[in-house]
Amino acid sequence: GAVVSQHPSWVICKSGTSVKIECRSLDFQATTMFWYRQFPKQSLMLMATSNEGSKATYEQGVEKDKFLINHASLTLSTLTVTSAHPEDSSFYICSARDGRTDYNSPLHFGNGTRLTVT
Amino acid sequence: ILNVEQSPQSLHVQEGDSTNFTCSFPSSNFYALHWYRWETAKSPEALFVMTLNGDEKKKGRISATLNTKEGYSYLYIKGSQPEDSATYLCASYGGNQFYFGTGTSLTVIP
Question: Residues 29 to 68 of A: which have CB under 8 A from any B CB?
């Protein structure tokens, strides 16, 4: 149980275009979705936290106008990288939690998306 | 920001060997420590969630211990098998978010 499906697994786009990454919870209601980014040889860094039906909370240094997060339903959250530039090339991964769990419960991750901006 | 460190960064062991890795985290404001196994092209899979000092958890050949006073956790794998090859991530919950280590990449050589 507790499967999170993330698409696409990898994407190559041209500089200036936008890319949308989707995360769907398949068998539970994802009340909260976390979006992480990982640069080579670095740890997963939290970008933003979104709760269904409300605006995302962004971590310091993450541009909310560049990384648009939508969490309109309990099973779907999207991250859109707008006007992507080569420095946005990274690995993006989501994790979800339902409303009944807290830090004592494991996170359920997607497979991640490798974004390359040319 | 919490500094969570894992060592070693990578290691290669022979099939059948036992091995262990370390996760260090700030001991102040500690809530929980998570271990995940992350195989290539898959999603991180939860191994253990630990909260109490002195906690020991076991799942088959894999076990983990937790010392919250000194801020470290050990993950042990007994009799490593090729299917244990993966990156092992730890994450410490610091009150408002999880802070991850960079992982230990384990390769088990048949």
Answer: 34, 36, 41-46, 49, 59
pLDDT tens digits, residue range B47-105?
A: 999 999 999 999 999 999 999 999 999 999 999 999 999 999 999 998 788 999 999 99
Q: Where are the beta strands (DSSP E) in chain A?
A: 4-7, 10-13, 19-25, 32-38, 45-51, 57-58, 67-73, 76-81, 90-97, 108-109, 113-117
Identify the CA nearest to B64 among candidates B32, B96, B39, B107: B32
Q: Which residue has the tokens 């076991």?
A: B58
**Residue B33, class by beta-carbon neighbours within 10 Å (0-12 exposed, 13-18 middle, 19+ buried)?**
buried
Q: Nearest by CB to A111, which of B43, B46, B97?
A: B43
